[in-house]
Amino acid sequence: MPRQILAEYSDDDARFDEMFAARGEPRPHYGALYERLLKQTAPQLRELFDDVDRQIRNNGVTYNVYDDEEGAGRPWAMDPLPLIIPAAEWAGVERGVAQRAKLLNSLLADFYGPQTLFQKGRLPPALILGHPGFQRPAFGITPPGGVFLHVLAVDLARSPDGQWWVINDRSQSPSGMGYALENRLITSRLFPDLFCELRVTRLANFFAALRDAIATYAPRDEGRTNTVVLTPGPYNETYFEHAYLARYLGFPLVEGQDLIVRDGCVWLKTLSGLRRVHAILRRMDDDFCDPLELRADSVLGVPGLMDVVRRGNVLLANGIGASVIETGALAGFLPGLCQHLLGEEMLMPSVATWWCGEGPVMEDALAKADHLVFRSAVPHPQGRRVEPVFGEDLDEDGLVRLAARVRANPRDWYAQELVALSRAPLLDRGHGRKLLGRPVGLRVYAVATPEGYMVMPGGLARTASERDVRILSNQRGGGSKDVWICGSAVASSVSLLRRPVDAADLVRSGSGLSSRVAENLFWFGRYAERCDNLARYLRVTLNRLSDSLDNPGEWKALSALGRTIGLLPEDCNEREAVRPLLRATFDAQHHGGLASHVLHLSRTGFQLRERLSLDNWRTLNALAQQIGSKPFERVGIFEALAQLDEYITSFMTLAGFALDGMTRDHGWRFLSLGRRIERLQFQTEAIEAAMKMGVRGNPEWLLEVSDSIVTYRARYMARPEWIAVLDLLIADDTNPRGIVFQTTGLCDYIERFNASLGDMPDCGLEALHRRLLALDPGLDFHPGSQALSEALGTLRTAAASLSDQISVHYFSHAEERARVIA
């Protein structure tokens, strides 16, 4: 049995093996996991991948690899087997990382303060002051508590003798904490009994410390401390993590456009006005944070943010300019700086490093270049990746060219010893009964607290997909693992609530909702309803075309509606209609088609990631994954009808989540406003198109498109008649597809908004609602009614006008509405 599972497991004495002390002999802390694997059959082990894939897909865990065809929808890559580290060994890692964080924070305090290290010759000024990460606008700013570095990520690698070494520091906006948390949730569900048996340390304490520390260091006023997570937006490679952390920590997720600077403070634009922001956990690079003082062409940041930070009126975590310590060229100076600043020996060393900005050091590095890796000491302009140069890959001419490049710009280069990354077991996805030995590195996180730096018990293990990979990177297609720190005392259950909620903290309205989120909810409602309308029209029309239409008037009406909603071209006859309808169903490139709008719905939902339930998100994910799965040219009518049935079921599910799973606050009202406006417009268009059939036409298809056929049959048990159909679809205020039902709800929402958010200009909807109620069914509910036709047309125009007014009044935050709230 061990022979089979290790058949593809490589023997490599140049690498430390995380799992095995010798071939087939697991280390003590891996023994229980290895025994579990030996007892599993190949199908059982393959099920682990199925479980991982299902949870990643259902939870929408994504990582955007730039230039990848999957883009922002690329699923997160994770191996089911955890990286296991004994608690006794971890204690040393923890002390080393905490000390390093303290040292780096002291360096930032000196760089942006007295700069004594330069004056005393401890550091060459060019190394720091010439680095693009040194932000001059941040000079002289002392943050609360003297904490420049609230969160630090340290990349570790293990050498062949088992020693952990520091490879990189990530200080600007360290990523991966949210993915580490998601990995933990998935892996602990795969091996629940093993998780308890090994006494794995839980992560909740770390995240609770992060939330509490931000509140502690944030400036205070009479109200509650408001913290936000600042993201560049949904196209950032780690946007899933931004939304995930925001939800987990209980902070609003905001973009730069959601914030504004006034009166020396940062404010969040909400529906009811401006709400003070006391702390910002940023996931945005330094340069983009403030176009006034940093990068002038940035459209992502908050104009004036640096001035507020300078005044001490907002906490920025991490502080602007923290990225300067990410340069690997600094590593060679750290042992001496640690002794000078902290009076301590460095507990966890960096890989041996040579900064080429010093002549003798450069020549020493070039003399042994064939054993080193040369890296860029500064970020490359426009963010383009500068590939490291491995001396062992170069011939004699290549080494000469490398030396010339380094001597031309010596300050831009540093050299490091190449560490052979340790090896960890990965399950072979193609053959569940085999283990593969692959390079692994560990990203560890530390957070500043009033008691010192606290280290996450674990972190994010990053793995390579190939055997001889020398650099680990998710952007290069690498994977990940959960990290288990085992053998510790069983931790008690921890809540992220800092203190009990009292009466003053109770919240029962959504007036604090940001304007951008409200706008996204509004359009989420519109897109959801539009998708449902298009799908019902496509299903009815394809059904009619497959069975032959009752009469020419029916096609006249259906084609008119199809042209109005953008699914059919002009002068399209029955024989020519199938192809454009199938294209609208399946082709995402068809602007205005169903597939295109499903993607719009999914993208809008993606921007609401932190507000959607997992059930909501899973339904959206399933919808988006069906798009483009098959070229429309290869699909027949009956397959299309089956697909449309699935779509409509999903749209009904989304509607059910909104109806049954959302509190009736302003967020829900904006979503419902979007749905009702969209439904009102579509229903008026559908009824007007149906009226083109004349009094002899059969309006049964109209009832089907309006999802009212069952109600009609239950009431009348007869062939559809115009007066009864129009009464059901127009005047019946109990029919959720009826027009009066929509206008009643819209009038109610507007009244509620006016009462709590300020009056909006009158769009005339209430008057039109009364006009509709005044219609006489006996006189006006027939296809030839001029009064009915005019009322429907005016209503459709009013719905469009209402949508525009809502956008201007509630989402744009015009100056006259921007009032301050507590």
TrEMBL record:
Pfam families per record: Alpha-E (PF04168), CP_ATPgrasp_2 (PF14403)
Chain ranges of the DUF403 domain: 513-811
Q: Which InterPro entries match?
A: ATP-dep_Glu-Cys_Ligase-2, CP_ATPgrasp_2, DUF403
- Domain spans labelled Circularly permuted ATP-grasp type: 82-464
Name assigned to this protein:
Molybdopterin oxidoreductase
Which species does the entry assign this protein to?
Candidatus Dactylopiibacterium carminicum
Lineage runs:
Bacteria, Pseudomonadati, Pseudomonadota, Betaproteobacteria, Rhodocyclales
